[in-house]
């Protein structure tokens, strides 16, 4: 194993140790879970000793923990190289840590403050994983999705075509041809300056409020199905002639397409509910006046 490979492994392993849980809502535990063992490979005994460092054992559990923290790029390496990279990282960390203890660095007050904070963050992560993340069921996520769909205000969509030209005179001439029975798709192929419209007959598909510029949207939603604008519509892009082909209620997204988003929504709601309850039950006294004012302002902005 090269020196650069070992250093890269150590760097990737050390990074999560300074980012445990973070200062925001953490990723769900299942998102960070290590890859499962292949079905045909028996899982090693976590207590099995694979090496010793300064007389202290390194177990399969230690290797697994290190492997879970190594960057995903190492997932492409052969298993034995990944294990070797994890062991080299553990070795270097333990030897340097022992050096730090020998020099008394572990007694430094600033180091002890940082270690206490890291422990608190690690416990924070464990609590929300155990008390929230692992308890969210697929049935709960589905129920939250159904509730979102049932409570959503109905939104109408329009299916339209358009012909975009540079001048009002061109648009007026196109409307006259439509009045004479010309096919909208043919006129779009001949005249529109919208590049995609030349090959699609000006087809825009379905769109809902807020997706088009206001002038265009207002005119399109005002038309009846099968109707086209009798006066050209001006926008920042030029002059439009619009044909509405259909109107319908917007279709909700499929559950499978949004289930991860819904799960994260449930997770966030439960997380903040837990934090709010712990704040009510706990004793928090902000004694610095300026800090208290800032904290109160943040609380008021995020009720």
Summarize the structure.
Residues 155-246 form the PpiC domain. By secondary structure, the protein is α+β, with helices and mostly antiparallel strands.
Structure notes:
This protein has 303 residues and is of the alpha+beta class. It folds into three domains: 122 residues, no CATH class; 53 residues, no CATH class; 94 residues, Roll (Chitinase A, domain 3). 52% of the residues lie in helices and 13% in strands. The chain is built from eleven helices and six strands. A four-stranded antiparallel β-sheet has the order 4-3-6-5, sandwiched between helices. Strands 1-2 form a two-stranded antiparallel ribbon. The longest helix has 27 residues. The chain starts with a helix and ends with a helix. The N terminus is likely disordered.
Key descriptive features of the protein:
Chitinase A, domain 3, 3 domains, four-stranded antiparallel sheet, 11 helices, about 15% strand, PPIase_dom_sf, signal
